[in-house]
Amino acid sequence: MKKKTITAIVLIILAVLIALVPLFTQKGSEFGGSDDAGSEMISEITGTESEPWFDPVFETAIGGELPGEIESLFFCVQTGIGVGIIAFFMGRFVERKKHEDKA
Amino acid sequence: MTHKQKTTVLLSIVFTVIMGFSLNTGAMHIMEGYLPAGYCIGWGVLCLPFLAAGFFSIKKTISQNRRTLTILSMAGAFVFVLSSLKIPSVTGSCSHMTGTGLGAILFGPCATSILGIIVLIFQAILLAHGGLTTLGANTFSMAIAGPLVSYGLYKLLPKLKVNRLVSVFIAAFIGDLFTYCVTSVQLAMAYPSETGGYIASVLKFLGVFAPTQLPLAVLEGILTVLIIMALENYAKREIAVLGYFREAK
């Protein structure tokens, strides 16, 4: 294998490990967002329960908090758009290179 | 830049400075409604010159070579993907990456501010993640401050004879961390601690964000290196046009 390919594979394995290891080392934790941890810190500093003065527009429109499943739907849509664009163009580049190498 | 474009950027800077003085200033994403209105406007205004410069910079890059449009959309898509992935961290909470390092390295910090704000608007409206009132502050930390640092490091490190891919890694890694430092400072400015004042507050917020973000910043560095390796291999012409190889040999 080329040296570059090996580097790439090692990096991918490393990336997966970084993402997965906390799940096993921090058993039983909730893995809530660090954004929420930030708002808890605000309450701790000010000493009062700090109330946001503006609600997210979408939550106002549907009159409540966004359901968890729907939230993950939107996150997936976001990921999907991104991956789609990257994969589409990358595919074109790869094919172009193959074509050029042949010529 | 043409004369007209320069004037627009200059005007927005002047506007920012004036607003900056008239303002009574005493998490990645800051949550909707958590910053006092004055700060929301202040940070928003601070972003304007960068956004204006970014808009013209993108326009110029594309008019010079239309092929770079594909790379630009890929850099934007990279921000989309990375900022949508919530990754568990060693502290037992979740956070996500910024993905702005790639854009900053290829297109510069101003162009990246446009890519970043698109993602932030998407998340603020649909996901109630971040927010419209805190859009300015979040844009400044994620789409301007972070990319500025990444861009600076990427310009600097190759001059110090650091390997190109290592430079990319460090640029993306520090850029991601710096985003969270700026967020901490932004929150601390709005919520100074009663006992220790402003500095104590910064440290407290950093204490929440930094340990969570550290492994994710490493991850962001790795992913940025991976996509850069792919681009170097398959889209050499396009990134050469963008001046990618000019900095590092």
Unreliable segments of 5+ consecutive residues of chain A: none
Number of strands of chain A: 0
Structural class of chain B: mainly alpha
Beta-strand percentage range of chain A: under 5%
Fraction of helical residues of chain B: over 70%
Radius of gyration of chain A: 22 Å
Commentary on this structure:
The complex is a heterodimer of chains A (103) and B (249). Chain A has 103 residues and is mainly α. Chain A has a domain at 57-103. Helices cover 75% and strands 0% of the residues of chain A. Chain A contains four helices and no strands. The longest helix of chain A is centred in the last third of the chain and has 35 residues, at 68-102. The radius of gyration of chain A is 22 Å and the shape is elongated. In chain A, 16% of the residues are buried. The mean pLDDT of chain A is 81. Chain B is mostly helical and 249 residues long. Helix content of chain B is 76%, strand content 2%. Chain B has ten helices and two strands, in the order αααββααααααα. In chain B, a hairpin with a 5-residue loop joins strand 1 (86-88) and strand 2 (94-96). At the A-B interface, helix 1, helix 2, helix 3 and helix 4 of A face helix 3, strand 1, helix 5 and helix 8 of B.
Quick recap of the structure?
The complex is a heterodimer of chains A (103) and B (249). Chain A contains four helices and no strands.
List keywords for this structure.
heterodimer, A: about 100 residues, mainly alpha, about 75% helix, about 0% strand, B: about 250 residues, two-stranded antiparallel sheet, 10 helices, globular
Q: Strands, helices and their partners?
A:
The complex is a heterodimer of chains A (103) and B (249).
Chain A: H1 3-25, H2 34-46, H3 57-62, H4 68-102
Chain B: H1 3-22, H2 37-64, H3 68-84, E1 86-88, E2 94-96, H4 100-107, H5 109-126, H6 135-156, H7 164-190, H8 197-234, H9 236-241, H10 244-247
Antiparallel strand pairs in B: 1-2
Helix pairs in contact in B: 1-2, 2-5, 2-6, 3-4, 3-5, 4-5, 4-6, 4-7, 5-6, 6-7, 7-8
